Amino acid sequence: MLDYDKEAERYDASRGGEPRAAAAAEAVLGFVPPDTRSLLDVACGTGIVTRRIAAARAGMRVTGVDLAPAMARQAATRLPGAVVLADSRRLPFRDEQFDVVSSVWLLHLAAGPADARAIVGECARVLRPGGVYVTTVDKAASHNVGSDIDVVLASRPPSPIRDRAADVESYAAGHGLVQAGQACFTGHGQGRSPRRTVADLRRGWFVTLPPGDPLAEGFATRLTELPDQDRPRPDPVFSLRAFRKAG
């Protein structure tokens, strides 16, 4: 897994920057009721999405939480006094504290099913009855856009999938959350080029292909043989699920 403290400085620029953040924030806001007074953004990262959510709703108090100190420091510059350093499996908030909880690009990073279930459970715990939980699902599948790069990488060892939609729906149901909708948004600026994909391979982006591993270098060689080395292929389209807490 990538070291998100090391990634913090380049995170926004390497992942679509403001256009992608705007698309993500708009999609999340589509599930935020107009009378929402408080929202918790779990794994807020650099705060680039969180800031847009906060700016869109006057009078809504937005709090961000992240585990990586460097990411949280960047978020704090965008949301002064509103960012907490904490583990999403053990949120430092009281029960039923927030009207809405979001977790964008988080569950796929869970170490295993138990951790993913724990994260969903914590998000449900701090959500008031009638409140809404919004999360991304199936992130890895979103990046498979049917390009020539995907064809080359199709035979790589598969990564464990921690955010499969059906699993997340099951975790949510186990914590009193009922399905409330779904949406998609485009990851603007995240379309891969062959050259960029080789660079990602060599810095550990693909968890089953460690940098320097002969298998990783074999994929890198095949990628360098593709045409249009610097032309980005289509952007990924990410999936959101929304759930409402019973009560």
UniProtKB/TrEMBL annotation:
<dbReference type="GO" id="GO:0032259">
    <property type="term" value="P:methylation"/>
</dbReference>
<keyword id="KW-0808">Transferase</keyword>
<dbReference type="Pfam" id="PF08241">
    <property type="entry name" value="Methyltransf_11"/>
</dbReference>
<dbReference type="GO" id="GO:0008757">
    <property type="term" value="F:S-adenosylmethionine-dependent methyltransferase activity"/>
</dbReference>
<keyword id="KW-0489">Methyltransferase</keyword>
<protein>
    <submittedName>
        <fullName>Class I SAM-dependent methyltransferase</fullName>
    </submittedName>
</protein>
<feature type="domain" description="Methyltransferase type 11">
    <location>
        <begin position="40"/>
        <end position="134"/>
    </location>
</feature>
<dbReference type="InterPro" id="IPR013216">
    <property type="entry name" value="Methyltransf_11"/>
</dbReference>
<dbReference type="InterPro" id="IPR029063">
    <property type="entry name" value="SAM-dependent_MTases_sf"/>
</dbReference>
